Amino acid sequence: MQHEAGAADAVVTAANVDLSNCDRELVHMPGLIQPHGVMLVLRPSDLGLLQASANMADLFGIPVPDLLSRGLPALLGDELAAALGAAIRQAGERLDRGPAHLLEVPAAPGRDAFDAMAHRAGDVLILELERRGAADLPMLNPYADLADCTGQLQSAASLQGFLEAAVTQVRAFTGFDRVMAYSFTADGSGAVVAEAIRDGLNPYLGQHFPASDIPAPARRLFALSWLRHLPNVDYTPVPLLPPSDQPVDMSRAILRHVSVMYSSYLKNMRAHATMVMPLMKDSALWGLISCMHHAAPLHVPCRTRTAVELLAHMVSSLMAEQEERDTAAYRGRMGDAIIVLHRQMEDESDHRRGLCRGDVTLLGWLDATGAALVTEGGVMLLGTTPSETEVRGIAAWLDEQDDTGPVFATDGLAEAYPPARSFQQAASGLLAARLMRSRQEFVMWFRPELVQTVSWAGDPRKPVQIDVVDGEARLTPRTSFDLWKEDVRGRSRPWLACEVEAAGSLRQAIAEVVLLRLNEELRKSNTELDSFAYVASHDLKEPLRGIHNFAHFLDESAHEKLNEEERGRIETILRLTRRMDDLTDALLQYSRVGRTEVVLQPVDLDALLRAVLEQLAPRIAEGGVEIRVPRPLPKALGDPVRLTEVLTNLIVNALKFTERPAGERWIEIGWREENGQRLFCIRDNGIGIAPQHLETVFQIFRRLHGRDKFGGGTGAGLTIARRMVERLGGRLWAESDGPGQGTSFLFTLAGTPEGENRP
Known about the structure:
The protein is an alpha+beta fold and about 750 residues long. The protein is built from 18 helices and 29 strands. A hairpin with a 4-residue loop joins strand 17 and strand 18.
C-alpha cells in the first residue's frame, strides 16, 4: 500500500488504523481484549499483578484497583490461587510456546465458570480467564471424534481430496456455517481451494482474494498460533488498566483484540463469528482453514478448541505428507516415462524419433500442453506450441543467456522475453533443457496462460471504499464480495520443482544416448580410417618403390649424359620418394596400432627400460646426454612390445629436441603415485613447448619446426605413442613451462598387476 512520506515512522494502533496503513498496525500490542473473558498481567517471580482488564467488576465483581492491591486470592480465593500458582510452576517451559490450560474456575453465585490459561510474553506472564457461557456448543467429548477425522484425512487420494475432507471434518467438529481451505500465492493473494457450507450460503469456492484482505501483520500472527477464535465480531473492546507506555505483546493471547480493519472486514462479509487455523508447510504459512458463522455469534469452548488445535496440527502434518505423496507419485510416473523414452531412443536409428513417437512422447510424460525438440536436424513440434520460427527465436534467446543453467523454467515468459507476448496464449510458461552448449539445441515444454478469467470475491482493484465518519473521509474494507471476474494475461501455472528436476534427468538421458551414438560413429570412423590407412600405405609402397628404383636406375645409367639441372631433378625425385616411403611406413604403423588385438599382462617396466636404453646407447653417448633413473620402475599391466615402442618414441623425442651443448643435456625417467594411480614421466631439459602447442604435437604428421631441423622425421612418433597408450587403457599428455624450459611427457596405464605392492 502507498503511504505518505514520513508516515512509516508513525505508530499505528487500533485508534488510528485504516487501509492506508494496516500493514504497519501493531496488531500484537493493542492494549485491548475481547469482553468474553478477563486478562491479568503477572510478574513471573511472585505472580504479583501488574495490569488487569477493565471488565473485572462486570465478570468477577471486583474493581481493578482493589484487585491490583489485594492480588490473585481476592479474585480466586486462597485455595484456587495457590492451585493456580502450582499449575504455573508445573507448566514451566510449556508457557513459552503459547497459552496452556491450567485449571477450571468453577461457577459461583452470580458468576459463570471460567477456563484459566497462561503463557509467557517477554518479561511478564499473561493469565486469561475465558468465560463458559450457556450458549456454547454442547460439551461433548471431542477427542473421541479425532480418530475418525484422522482416518478420513488419511484415506484421501490426493491433496485436493485431502483439503475437501479437512474442511468437511472441521465444520462437523465445530458447527460453523462455512469452513474454507485458503491457499496463498506468491504475490500474497489467495484462493479458496476447498469449502464446506450450510445450505443457503453463496459459495466462495474457486474465488480469489487480494493480498490486502489479509495484510502481512495478520499473516505473521496466523503463523504464530495454531488457532484464532473470535466468538462475536460485534463487540466492544476492553482496555488493560492501568494504561502503560510499554504495551504487552499479545501475539499469542486468546482474548487479544483483533484489528479494527479485520472486524470491519468480517462484518462486511456478514460473519458473526470466526475461527482460523494455519496450514503450515516447512515452517512457512502455506494457507489457512478459515471458519465463519453467519447466523449468530458462536463461542467454541476451550475444550473443543484444544481438540481442534490438535486437529489443526494433524491437518498441516498430513497435508504435507499428502503433498509429498502426490509429488512422489508424479515424480515416479515421470521417472518411468524417462526409462521408456530412453529405450525408444535406443531402438530408433534417429533418437529424435524415439522422443516424438511411441508409447511415451515428449508431450505425454509431464503436465504440459506443447513440446518442441530443437536440433541441428530441425525443429519437431508436438501439441499446442508457438510456430517453428518462434521456437527458433526462443532457442536463440536462451542461447544468449549466461545465467540460465542447463534447465530454465518460467511461468511468465513474456516478462523475460517480450516477443513471447505474440504467442502467450500457447506459451506463457516455458521449461527448457539445453542439450548441447556448443549449439542451439534444446528440448522445450510449454504451458498456456493459467486461465483466461480469474474469479475474485469482489473487485480486487477496489479493496477499500471511502466512508465519511464523523465528518472525516476514512478508508474501510470493501462491502461487496459479489463475484467479480478479471482477465489474467501472460502467466501460466508454475512449474514444480520435481518437473524441473525431471527435465534435467531427461536431458541427461538424451545426452547418454547421443554420446553413445557419437562414440559408436567415432569407432566406426576410426575403424574405416584404420582400414583406409592400412590399404593406402600398403598399396602405395609398390608404386613408390618403382618410382624410386626407376629414378635411381636413370641416375646411374645416364648420369654423365644429364646436365646439372636434370641431375637435380632426379635427386629431388629420389628425396621425395624416400620421404613418401617414411610417411607410408608411419601411416602403416599407426593403422596397425588400431588393428591388432590387445592382451594385457604383467610387464617389468624396469627391465623394458634397460633394454631400450641399451639399444639407444650409441645415440645417447653421441649426444652427451645424462640419463637419470631415480628409482626402478614398477611392474605394470600392458603389452611389452607396445610399451617398448612407447618408451623408445618418448626417449628418442627427448634426445632430438634440444639445443643445449653435449654434457649439459639430461633425460629423467621416473614415476610417482597420484590420486591412487601410477604416473610415469619422461622429463628433459630441451627446447620446451609453448602452452598452445601442447596438444598440437600429438597430431599426426604435424611438426612445429622445419622438416630437417632437429634430425627431421615424419611427425608421427608422438601420435603413435599416444594411440598405443590409449589402447593399453591409459593416457599420454605433455607438460611444459614454455620454450626453453624443457618438457615432461606423462602417461598412465590400465592398472597394477595383481599382488604388486603399492608404496
